[in-house]
Write a structure and sequence with these properties.
This protein has 723 residues and is of the alpha/beta class. 55% of the residues lie in helices and 15% in strands. The strands form 5 sheets. It has a 6-stranded mixed sheet with strand order 10-11-12-8-13-14, sandwiched between helices. The chain has a 5-stranded antiparallel sheet with strand order 18-17-16-15-19, with no helix packed on it.
């Protein structure tokens, strides 16, 4: 693959996408590098970048969260390390130490979870690990950014002496302070600090009575700050020791810098790795915000985008809490070029930009907001001609610029190219410009390039209809409200709805008719036919949707009936078995009854026993012989069936009880009717209907014709009120 021209990236608003990715990076260097992202020229590197971003995105949804990768830039330190005899500052060492520790932490993490993050692990494994640098820095610098006493024996000794001298200074100063205080030489504040040294606050009138070095006076001149003579010798000793400490610290830092200097290339690679992780994390956060993913990558030169969203539009509408319409579009060997037509403000340009921007994003290692079943391929070149490209500096008109662009297309266009052209052929005489555009389109088609164009030209719509591997498409438009639905429909050209839109916007009908008369009758009829076809297409789409719903309902009903039929069939088989069993038992009973009657008459036991044995043997001969184990299993099965049946019966009874309670509760909650004499009523549990003869104190006498009965009004239901 080759790099894509910057003008194409600008046309597709790719820099705006990079700004949004940069805003999601944690580090300043990450933000800077994110703005420089460009399409990859190496497919292997591109697949790695896409895979790593996809792995980082997956980490947001599992418990194995990738550690924090934040760091401060060490570019200044890397420059100093390249210059001999330079020394890094303590803050620089801390930044280097933190970067080394962060890299080691990431290497350990990716090694532990390499099954989850194989590509990120491979990326981290390429870096040479080094624990010596942070250990060397930790031996010298503490967590507060101070040089440790243990950095060298010399430094430890100097600092011990400094502490001793400071103790002596404090002791001698305390003695001088007490003496001057008792002599009333001091001001109320007693002491102060000047140039990081303790001084006595002596009243100006007593300045000559206190021996020592004057360090200054107050603003009013009433106080003189003096170092007591007794502490001066110790102060000079302290200054010498502090100078020695400073020199020793400088020596330690020089030594530490020299020990790190050979590893400057390694530190640069560490920083580069963390920048890469920061950008990958930024891409993953961006993908998460717009529900992006890594679709299937194919080598068949097929671009199948399902439910694709324009990233910038999606995020803008998400903030406004407005709906964004997705697009579904397919380009393959038998459908290489799509010509989109239809009215302005219908979403043609957005569809065009969506395809181009998603392709550029994917080839730059960013995930794209499409359905997971989408399939995409890569293009060597992406050529665009979008928007008004009038150039004032070059004194070029829009049409001149577009012709120059078309010339560029003709030079670069081949079977590995995706071209996107908005308002193809505009800027010149409609007939002449349309003819030239048609010629260009035929060249692109012959070179087997893939592309999407938007146009209002009828000849381009006709050409797309004639070419076997080109397709017309239109943005669906509601012909009644004249509002766009932002849905791309493949397979038919779109009407521009020129006169309809004009009428909706208040242009007088007489003026529209006048305009219609000025153009060719065939053109109006052609546009009207397309408009009519679009309306029919919309109706068919609605009908198809309704039929599909009905088909689903019919299928569900068929499945329900099949299940019901199976249940009924099973029940019939059970009833048949039960009937056959009962018939056999009746026949057996008849035989036993006949034997009993004969015994009753002749009272002979032997023939009776003989007959009974014969009956039993005859019945047993019909039974299949089973082992004791099979018999037990059959018995257990029968027992299990009986238990399951019992459970079902209990469940049904419980459900009936609950249903009855609900019914009773409903009846209780129902407002009671106000009965009147002559109303036709019946008892709540009865079927007979009578009429009320008298009503008195919540009691009613109900006449059933043959008899009357005295009942409570609460037990009655109203059948028909007296008219």
């Amino acid at each position: 693959m080759q790099n894509i021209h910057p003008k194409t990236l600008q046309d597709l608003e790719f820099p705006t996408v990079l700004e949004q990715v940069a805003a999601r990076c944690n580090t300043e260097l990450g933000k800077e590098v994110a703005l420089e992202i460009r399409p990859y020229s190496d497919k292997e590197l591109l697949m790695d970048a896409l895979g790593q971003t996809s792995e980082y995105l997956a980490s947001f949804a599992n418990e194995n969260r990738i550690p924090n990768h934040g760091f401060d830039s060490i570019n200044a330190e890397l420059k100093l390390l390249k210059i001999e005899n330079t020394t890094l500052e303590i803050s620089g060492f801390r930044r280097i130490g933190n970067i080394c520790k962060t890299v080691v932490l990431h290497q350990k993490f990716f090694k532990k979870f390499k099954e989850y993050y194989p590509l990120l692990f491979a990326c981290s494994a390429e870096i040479e690990p080094n624990t010596e640098i942070p250990e060397a820095i930790d031996q010298v610098v503490d967590k507060f950014g101070e040089i440790k006493d243990s950095a060298s024996e010399q430094l430890r000794s100097i600092r011990m002496q400094i502490n001793e001298v400071r103790g002596k200074i404090n002791q001698s100063f305390g003695v001088a302070l007490a003496r001057c205080q008792s002599s009333d030489f001091l001001d109320e504040i007693r002491e102060s600090v000047v140039e990081n040294r303790r001084v006595l606050a002596v009243k100006a009138m007593h300045r000559r009575k206190v021996k020592g070095t004057v360090m200054g006076t107050s603003k009013t001149g009433s106080i003189v700050y003096i170092i007591p003579e007794t502490t001066l010798s110790y102060t000079r000793e302290l200054s010498n020791l502090e100078f020695e400490e400073k020199e020793e610290i400088q020596r330690i830092l020089n030594q530490l810098t020299d020990s790190i200097r050979p590893y400057d290339y390694l530190l640069a690679s560490y920083q580069g790795f963390l920048i890469h992780i920061d950008i990958t994390a930024g891409k993953a956060k961006y993908a998460s915000d717009m529900n992006a993913l890594l679709p299937e990558i194919n080598n068949e030169k097929e671009l199948n985008l399902k439910n694709a969203y324009h990233p910038l539009l999606y995020l803008t509408n998400k903030l406004k809490k407005e709906k964004t319409w997705p697009q579904t579009i397919q380009l393959h060997a038998e459908n290489r070029i799509i010509v989109i037509s239809g009215p302005n403000a219908g979403g043609k340009s957005i569809t065009l930009k969506t395809i181009g921007l998603l392709q550029v994003m994917l080839q730059s290692g960013l995930l794209i907001p499409v359905h997971e079943r989408s399939s995409v391929c890569f293009f060597d070149k992406i050529l665009t001609d979008i928007g008004d490209n009038q150039s004032i500096e070059n004194h070029l008109s829009t049409y001149s610029y577009r012709l120059k662009n078309m010339n560029h297309f003709l030079k670069k266009c081949n079977n590995k190219t995706l071209f996107l052209i908005d308002e193809f052929g505009t800027g010149s005489d409609p007939e002449l410009g349309g003819a030239l555009a048609e010629a260009f389109l035929e060249v692109f088609y012959e070179r087997e390039a893939y592309g999407v164009i938007t146009t209002h030209y009828a000849n381009l719509k006709a050409l797309a209809n004639e070419l076997p591997y080109a397709t017309n498409a239109n943005m669906r438009f509601n012909s009644k409200t004249l509002e766009p639905t932002f849905q791309l429909i493949l397979g038919e050209a779109g009407s521009s709805f020129t006169f309809e839109v004009a009428q909706k916007n208040g242009i007088p009908y007489s003026l529209i008719n006048k305009a219609k008369k000025k153009i060719e009758r065939g053109k109006v009829r052609f546009d009207a036919t397309i408009a009519k076809l679009q309306k029919e297409r919309n109706k068919m789409a609605q009908t198809g949707s309704r039929l599909q719903e009905e088909e689903i309902k019919a299928r569900e009903e068929s499945e329900r009936l099949e299940k019901l039929n199976a249940k009924i069939k099973s029940k019939l088989e059970n009833y048949q078995e039960l009937y056959d069993h009962n018939q056999r038992m009746i026949q057996l009973g008849d035989k036993v009854n006949t034997a009993a009657e004969r015994y009753f008459i002749d009272n002979k036991k032997r023939p009776l026993i003989s007959e009974l044995l014969r009956i039993v043997e005859t019945e047993n001969s019909k039974r299949k012989k089973t082992t004791a184990k099979q018999a037990r299993a059959k018995q257990a099965q029968k027992k299990q069936v009986a238990q399951e049946l019992e459970k079902k019966i209990v469940k049904v009874r419980q459900e009936k009880k609950i249903e009855k309670k609900k019914t009773i509760q409903k009846e209780k909650n129902k407002p009671r009717p106000v009965f009147k004499v002559g109303d036709r009523v019946r008892l709540q549990d009865g079927k007979a209907v009578g009429s009320i003869d008298t009503l008195e104190k919540n009691k009613a006498v109900v006449n059933y014709g043959m008899f009357t009965t005295n009942v409570s009004v609460d037990q009655l239901e109203l059948v028909e009120a007296k008219k």
